[in-house]
Design a protein that fits this description.
mainly alpha, MAIN-like, 3-stranded antiparallel sheet, 5 strands, AminoTfrase-like_pln_mobile, Protein MAIN-LIKE 2-like, 8 helices
């Protein structure tokens, strides 16, 4: 098991992560990937928001959608994510981040429980690695609808 945001990546989640097209993203943790903080800081200093480019000594460059897809292993072709979740009150219990509620999936639990924990893990990935905010522990409710339909999630780009 590998931890991300205090929630372990259990091997039992792998089929669900693969179904959702997020297994490669889940593997980007301390075991396989180390963040080069000085490099990130250097890029941050060279970022120009007015042109959405990095100003380098050899010229300007930017990150493309294909670069992100390659690095994170995410699909860029497929159904697009759009819309708004209006019946979110059906999905909320307590307003706490899922990884605070779920933690580790107990050994010997049934498949439906493992599936619930895998969904919580996917919400944690979405909220921390793809669509994070300054809080580091919140995710927009719109993603819940996609995670609820886990079988269809892998068809989105």
């Amino acid at each position: 098991m590998w931890r991300q945001q205090g929630m372990p990546l259990d091997e039992r989640y792998v089929p669900y992560l693969q179904m959702a097209g997020l297994y490669h993203l889940a593997r980007l943790n301390d075991r396989w990937y180390r963040l080069d903080e000085p490099l990130v800081s250097a890029f941050f200093e060279r970022w120009r928001p007015e042109t959405h480019t990095f100003h380098m000594p050899f010229g300007e460059c930017t990150i493309t959608l294909q670069d992100v897809a390659y690095q994170l292993g995410l699909a860029v072709d497929g159904r697009y994510v759009s819309g708004c979740l209006t019946d979110f009150h059906m999905y909320i219990e307590g307003g706490r981040p899922a990884w605070e509620t779920f933690g580790e999936c107990p050994e010997g639990d049934d498949e439906e429980t493992v599936r619930r924990f895998a969904r919580a893990y996917i919400m944690m990935l979405l909220g921390t690695q793809l669509f994070g905010d300054k809080s580091g522990n919140r995710i927009h409710i719109r993603w819940l609808l996609y995670v609820a339909r886990l079988e269809e999630m892998g068809s989105y780009s």
